[in-house]
Amino acid sequence: MKALKRKIGNGYILLMMLFFYLPIFYVMIFSFNESKSLTRFTGFSLVWYEKMFASRPIMEAVYYTIVIALIATAVSTVFGTITAIGLSKSRKILREVVLQINDIPMLNPEIVTAIGFMLLFTSMNIEKGFMTLLIAHIVFCIPYVILSVMPKLRQLDDNIAEAALDLGATPFQALTKVIIPQIMPGVVSGALIAFTMSFDDFIISFFTTGPGVNNIAIYVYSSIKRINPSINALSTIIVVVVTTVLVLVNVIPVIRDRKKGKNEKIS
Question: How far is C-alpha 197 from the chain's CA centre?
């Protein structure tokens, strides 16, 4: 009976893996197709990669996506981390109220948040474009950073900052040299989530951008009614880059810890 349950479980996992990853492999394979066909592979070619790099709209979409994601990640990580540290030192009632409010943008449907941003910018007579898109991305990324940093702060000894101050550190030194290094895994996780959310966002971007400022998601949506295999090439590059980054982020700490363990044994 246990063997049967194990086989059923393994079969279910296999089906789920195929459901999630088969479309990705399909897109990657047909990005090398020499023809526009998305159903018949006629031969290996890099023509769609050449056309992708030669396409100004695609390159502009990639540029805006990366620049906005990087800036939004940096700003939201700084503000989110500082906010989380401040909340950890606040009264419990205030902390719980703010955290509950912080959860609203994540639980709220994105379409509602997007319309709210659009109405805000319109009511303030702010012309929609790069800055409105950037502000919207920063605002909706901050809650994810706070959510990632708070668990690490709960694990932190409450007396560690006071001990640093007693030993002669300034408040800024206690923050940068004692507290932040201790919560760095949460900060890095929050930054990665913020970058992913900004890079991948479509709904909020669609309602807060202006003419001539499109990210990858908006460009793909605008091209959905016509066959454009260059999008397959772009998707393949994104998958390869993201996979490489995830592997490095997960493998490098393991290698570093192993080297540290070997050095400790030798010493």
Answer: 4
Q: Which residue has the tokens 């449907």?
A: 109
Instruction: Report all structural domains of the chain as residue ranges with CATH numbers, in order of start.
Output: 56-226 (1.10.3720.10)
In degrees rounded to 5, what are phi and psi of residue 33? -75, 135
Rounded to two decimals, what is the model's pTM? Answer: 0.82
Structure tokens given for 120: 């805000």
pLDDT tens for each residue of the chain, 267 residues long = 677 777 777 788 888 888 888 888 888 888 888 888 777 888 888 888 888 888 888 899 999 999 999 999 999 999 999 999 888 888 888 888 888 888 888 888 889 889 999 999 999 888 888 999 999 999 989 999 999 998 888 888 777 777 777 777 777 787 778 888 888 888 888 898 899 889 888 899 999 998 888 888 888 888 777 777 888 888 888 888 878 877 777 777 777 777 766 666 665
Which secondary structure element, helix H or strand E, spans residue 19, and what is its range? helix 2-30
Angle between helix axes 92-107 and 130-155 (nearest 10 degrees) is 130
Q: Please give the biggest Cα pair distance in the chain.
A: 72
